[in-house]
Amino acid sequence: MLKKYVSYLGVFVLVCFSFFYTEKAADIVRRNDPIMQMIEEVKSEYEVDPIEAIVVGDEIIPGLNGRQVNVNKSFSNMKKINRYQESLLVFDEVMPDLSLAYDKYVIKGNEQLNQVALMFTVDDSNNLEAISQVLLEKNVVATFFIDGDVVQENMDMVESLAGDGYEIENLGYQGSYTTDRFEWTNNMIESLTNAKTNYCYTEYKDSNILDLCSHHKMYTIKPSIYASNYPLLTVKKNLSNGSMISFDTSDTTLKELPSVISYIQQKGYDLVTVQQLIEQQSISEK
Asked: Which of 7, 58, 113, 274 is the most buried if burial means most Cβ atoms within 10 Å?
């Protein structure tokens, strides 16, 4: 019996050694392959460190993901054609230690990205359809923070806005965020848009809003530009990378919105939704 166990042990050790040796030999072959050597040589040119979020007190500007070359996957891709080809490099995103936080006011997007977000606070349905038409004609997206009353009374319009690619978020109920109506408004929006609500809105620091939204795993947006009065002039004076620009749906906004959009685009900015602006992105997408 003992000889039998010794024999089995010997076979096991031999198999393990053989496996280790095979893997070691294969690794040496890979490392000496000209394709692998080229990948190792150039990978530092493509790798980008992540950018940490900027936090000042209870305010935050989101960070950005970096990237690194996935050497093994890149090598496997190129071995299929047996030569180095830049387009076959595979990248992995590298996340910063901190990019966003629920318990902070998000005041703008990362300044490394040449992007701007337009936001509209909707506490009645006046001009809502006309404003959305201007956005459609200009082929730009935006984020609408809509009061629960307006959502309830204009469900078809909310569905239409979502169908046109606009982001719909919770503005509270009758002008304020309250615990008893918060989830109700979220559920209404989500059922109409088939998308999760992610953000709350405030123009002033309010710990009650911050706590409520944080509890529901939603970020609190505090815009960097309030453009309800003299929209075009205000934007011209304050526009910068990462700006989150807030408008109401007044006649003044409707009148000046086409000029505002044209000015932003002439300055070379991409217009995106709030989610596209602030949620973790790769710096390589700049």
From this structure: 274
